[in-house]
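SEQUENCE, STRUCTURE TOKENS:
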Amino acid sequence: MSELLERLEREVLPLVARPSRYTGGEKNVPVCDPAGADLSFLLAFPDVYEIGMSHLGIRILYDILNRRPDIAAERTFAPWTDMEAQMREKGVPLFSIENHRAAREFDPEYKQQTRSAATGPAQERGYQACGGERSVPTVGVRDS
């Protein structure tokens, strides 16, 4: 479990309606190892989770990107007003729902600095390999 998710579960999610909008873990959506990908995307939808997940285009784009073994795509959605207020009050950044990574972590320089700090194989950290079939947001990062 990520440090950000632990903080969300402890300090923020008990105070908002529909906390499941922000936790991820949907069925049939494998979580890719972002450290093992050459290109990492944060696909951002400008509305709440329920609206974004009903948008066929975002689901298709997410699926196409994650079918490639060299790409890891994650999603984020606009927080509802109660969550936005809590995030601002507690200094919580916008984050992906798959790995609960802050949006700023999708910056190329951040990824380059943290890639070497990752420990253990991806399988030990509970990730599945990217690529292959799956069903189901936009800042792109390419390593140099």
